[in-house]
Design a protein that fits this description.
This protein is of the alpha/beta class. It is built from 5 helices and 13 strands. Strands 4-5-6-3-2-1-13 form a 7-stranded mixed sheet. Strands 7-8-9-10-12-11 form a 6-stranded mixed sheet. The two termini are about 20 Å apart.
Length: about 230
């Protein structure tokens, strides 16, 4: 079974909450960006990463904007389940941008990264996906005849950002749209891919946008979650 949650921001207590107990051995948890546990490379950080890598389930994440990309890029790259990953510790891996993975019999397109937050000191230019990242995603989709099961990203496509902004003040975080280039390419992926569900973590809310798009923050849901059931 594949489970998905939103930005963890280096909060270890999230993994100790009761909702994580439903994730069983050989299940997979995917985090939609802003993992946040790879920051200073210190001894305490290494202990935490080792603890996460020893969970009974795989812990996978796509990058967001609140990451230390220099530190993240120091980890080795390895092929895993059809795509490139960075091996962090044990069962803990980063799913690299634009790769399609076979996880629990499902095809999952991972696409981390987002528009940098100017008010966040540690954000840098590496957080924004490059044209090469988008080319990688398009190429990976074509190899699968554009038919996949799930997309897991940090940012949503532009149409979802606009939907979430409805009724909000101009100063609201939801109204701060990502760059034109990023919007354009995410919309292209949205148009090209034949998929069941798209999960993203950018907006720090738990909300289902019927019926294919799932905004996640501190909730943990199965990819097979039925929105009609509580």
């Amino acid at each position: 079974m594949i489970y998905v949650t939103g930005d963890t921001h280096g909060d270890l207590e999230r993994f100790k909450k009761p909702m994580f107990r439903k994730i069983k051995k050989r299940d997979t948890l995917i985090i939609c960006g802003d993992f946040g546990f790879i920051w200073d490379g210190g001894k305490r950080e290494k202990r935490i990463l080792k603890w996460l890598g020893k969970r009974r389930y795989d812990v996978l994440f796509v990058d967001g904007v609140h990451e230390n990309f220099d530190e993240l890029e120091s980890y080795p790259v390895e092929q895993w389940n059809g795509g490139n990953t960075r091996v962090i510790s044990g069962k803990l891996r980063q799913l690299m941008r634009g790769n399609v993975f076979n996880i629990d019999g499902k095809k999952v397109l991972a696409f981390g990264g987002g528009d940098r937050d100017e008010d966040v000191q540690r954000s840098d230019s590496k957080c924004a996906p490059s044209p090469e990242d988008f080319e990688q995603a398009m190429s990976a989709l074509e190899k699968h005849d554009c038919k996949i099961d799930y997309i897991v990203s940090y940012e949503p496509p532009a149409m979802i950002t606009e939907f979430l902004a409805l009724g909000k003040n101009a100063s609201d975080t939801l109204c701060q749209s990502v760059s034109d280039t990023l919007n354009y390419y995410l919309d292209k992926i949205n148009e090209k891919a034949d998929y069941e569900r798209w999960f993203f973590g950018r907006h720090h809310i738990n909300k289902i946008i019927p019926k294919k798009h799932f905004a996640l923050f501190d909730d943990v849901i199965s990819t097979q979650h039925d929105p009609t059931k509580k």
